[in-house]
Amino acid sequence: MDKYAGKKAVITGGTHGMGLATAEALLAGGAEVLVTGHNEQNLTAAREKLGPNARILRSDTTSLVDIDALAKVVADEFGPVDFVHINAGFAEIEPIEQVTEASYDRTFAVNTKGAFFTVQRLLPHVIDGGALVFTTAVADGTGTPGMATFSGAKAALRAFAQVLAAELLPRGIRVNVVSPGFIRTPTMGVATATEESRELFAKEGAALTPLGRIGTPEEVAVAALFLGFDATFTTGVELAVDGGIAQGLVPLGAE
User: Fold this and answer.
1) CA 192 to CA 198: how far, in whole Å?
2) What percent of the chain has pLDDT over 70?
3) Within 10 A of 77 (CB to CB), how many other CB atoms are there?
4) Model pTM greater than 0.90?
5) Does domain 8-241 have CATH number 3.40.50.150?
6) DSSP per residue over 176-219, as a string?
7) Taking the domains of the chain in order of start, what are their residue ranges?
8) CB-based contacts of 150: which residues, under 8 Å, 6+ apart?
């Protein structure tokens, strides 16, 4: 399959979960892919899973030094980019009275500040007519208890994406957002959760999702790549991949 032959893509947070699934789909379609991650165990696993056709780069999205280094690698070694997927994210479930300055700052540093400056630094290396896709979450527009800082950080990212979509019109660069619901990733979206709490989270997610199950990383990857390559007349939109949660769907017979 050569759907993405000749294309080059950068995925932040691409060493596990949704980002890794997106990288796998791109590689299967013939693209050249550079993925970033911060966790050494995930970096090692991604190298083994993605093989020699992927470039794996250790990069902390909260560090402007690392972001500048990523941009330099792209400029000097990787070449002009067709698709950038800003997927790196971080969440903790904290009732508002438990939020500390440190947890607040980390949530915004990963989900918002890092995403913003990564795009800023990479934009000179994105081709005219290319595409950016951000990963937000259905929590960016719902009142989910315990997710005040995460919801706020992702809502800010959604706002950034809309402004970028307008600013990049002269270059023909499309900017869109994929918004996952409950997805079966290694962390279930909460890095600090225990395995037991993740399983409970997955069961609760399936019960809350109108389609009656949680999603897969591959389903998010399909949506991200649709926005990145197939939806050529679409920019500034948020595509929910959430089994109907954000739409408030109610199964027939449910109360």
Assistant:
1) 10
2) 94
3) 9
4) yes
5) no
6) EEEEE-SB--SSTT-TT--HHHHHHHHHHHHHHSTTSS-B-HHH
7) 8-241
8) 90, 91, 92, 107, 111, 137, 139
Q: Given pLDDT bands bounded at 50, 70 and 90, which one contains residue 254?
A: low
Q: What is the mean pLDDT of the chain?
A: 92
Q: Could you please report the per-residue DSSP string of the chain?
A: --TTTT-EEEEET-SSHHHHHHHHHHHHTT-EEEEEES-HHHHHHHHHHH-TTEEEEE--TT-HHHHHHHHHHIIIII--EEEEEE-------B-GGG--HHHHHHHHIIIIIHHHHHHHHHGGGEEEEEEEEEE--GGGGS--TTBHHHHHHHHHHHHHHHHHHHHTGGGT-EEEEEEE-SB--SSTT-TT--HHHHHHHHHHHHHHSTTSS-B-HHHHHHHHHIIIII-TT--S-EEEESTTTTTT---TT--
Joined tokens for residue 168? 């990049």
